[in-house]
Amino acid sequence: MTAPIFVDTNVLVYARDAGEPAKQPRAMEVLRLLWASRAGRVSTQVLQEYYVTVTRKLRPGLPNADARADVDALFAWQPTSPTLSTFQQAWEIQDRFQLSGWDSLVVASAMESGSRLLLTEDLQHGLIIGKLRVANPFHVDFQLNELVAKTRGKPRS
Prior knowledge:
The protein has helices spanning 9-16, 24-37, 44-57, 64-74, 84-97, 101-112, 144-150; strands at residues 5-7, 40-41, 117-119, 128-129, 132-135.
């Protein structure tokens, strides 16, 4: 069984951002592994942030049709949608860990998705929140083989 891995907006954006030649290849490789293993997870918040960022903030921006096709494809990653419970958990995380509201909601959504690993550059690499570990795929200590190992869960008996 493949363990889910939650991906934050920045990893998705870097895969499309030719203006980040150091980060784009790493982001593309991480996403390739997640597609191959079917382990990727996102939230509707991440999808909305992705769409806005790649169409309005990148230079040159992605055409709307291409960004929409990306979002359509990412629905295969079973996006979570926040509920009242998700917001309540996010607020607890925000208070306890002093994270922004946006980051707290991403963490709560990752937990809700059943992920044990959150890939983002926005939080401290190695941070543990409950059963969720944060990893920055652009950090010098991040290893792609670590990601592959995390996608291999224990078989259920």
